[in-house]
Amino acid sequence: MEELSKVSVLIGTYNRASLLSRCLDSVFAQSYKNIEVIVINDKSTDNTIEVLEKYKKRYPTRFKYINNKTNRGIAYNSNLAFSNSSGEYVALIGDDDEWYNQKKIAMQIDVFRKNEKLGIVSTYWNDIKNKQVVNQHKPTINSDPLCQILKGNGVYCGSTVLVSKIAWELVNGFDEKLRRGTDSELFRSIIKKRFKTQIIPVSSTNVFIDDHFRMTPVNSYVLQKKALNANLYLLSKYFFDYLKYPSALFVRVLNIIKLYYKLIITVIKR
Predict the structure, then answer these.
(1) How far is CA 268 from the centre of its chain?
(2) Helices marked H in the chain — which ranges?
(3) What spatial distance separates the first Cα and last Cα of the chain, rounded to whole Å?
(4) Which pLDDT value is given to residue 1?
(5) 133-162 residue pLDDT tens
(6) In sequence order, what are the residues at sequence separation of 6 or more whose Cβ sits closer than 8 angstroms to the Cβ of residue 204?
(7) Judging by beta carbons within 10 Å of its beta carbon (0-12, 13-18, 19+), is residue 54 exposed, middle or buried?
(8) DSSP state for residue 250 in the 8-state scheme
(9) pLDDT mean across residues, the chain
(10) What are phi and psi of 217, to 5 degrees?
(11) Which 8-state DSSP code applies to residue 191?
(12) Which of 86, 105, 128, 141 is geometrically suited to a Cys-Cys bond with 32, CB 3.0 to 4.6 A?
């Protein structure tokens, strides 16, 4: 019998003890069983450690967690989790999201087996608000994925992707200079290295977008400033790529202008 490739599931968590069990239960409910889970507790002040201890006792050989001494953020946590992983493939999932399709990982591994040039395999996903599906995301990849993702994202959701370890290591994982859109930047850097990517036309994941679950409300000054700084950083980082793709440059610059405007309006209203 062919040995199953190991999948490392990386999760960062901060003060979401009441939601974390839903996420972890959905991971361990996957039909694909050669999974290890690494959780980085980003200095939570609630009872997160109690939740993590429960899963450590339940899955002693498949689950581990690390407690940060200071709050470090998504990019750092993802890289730290990866450095403590041993899988040939890496899956990401938000601590407040869930994989409701129990065949998600099995389907993605099957796709990887058929094409060794793949770096990312993703799926469709749902946005959930007030326990209702408010949006069903069914993205497609166009003929030039790099141009497509230079414009932004919306093609890949962090909680749906499976990434090859080779691709992750080649781009050195998450860019820790970025404070917003960190998972999108991981996918962008992998695509820039000319790895192939594929989306399975099946929904697998529920992403919960309720504002009261978010650490920072969507329309807050802090989040808008982070988004603006992230866009400026990406424009600088991929400047020569943007020169090759004027349509992507136009979209990115337009987005920066809109963010500047929103930030000014937010400041005026404060």
Answers:
(1) 33
(2) 17-28, 48-58, 74-83, 104-114, 145-150, 165-170, 182-192, 221-237, 239-244, 246-269
(3) 64
(4) 37
(5) 999 999 999 999 999 999 998 899 999 999
(6) 99, 100, 101, 103, 104, 107, 123, 124, 125, 160
(7) middle
(8) H
(9) 94
(10) -55, 145
(11) H
(12) 105
Beta carbons of 252 and 150 less than 8 angstroms apart: yes
Predicted pLDDT at 265: 86
Q: How many CA atoms lie within 13 A of 158 on its CB side?
A: 22
The predicted model gives 205-213 an average pLDDT of: 80
Kindly list the distances between the CA atom of residue 226 and the CA atoms of 182, 218, 223, 229, in Å, as whole numbers in the listed order.
Answer: 11, 11, 5, 5
Strand partners, 133: 128
| 27 within 8 A of 35, measured Cβ to Cβ | yes
Q: Tell me the one-letter amino acid at 9.
A: V
Instruction: Establish how many alpha carbons lie within 13 A of residue 47's alpha carbon, considering only the half-sphere containing its beta carbon.
Output: 6
CB 93 within 8 A of CB 159: yes
* Best CA proximity match to 25, nearest among 206, 168, 195, 201: 206
Amino acid at 6: K
- The residue type of 139 is P
Is the Cβ–Cβ distance between 13 and 39 less than 8 Å?
yes
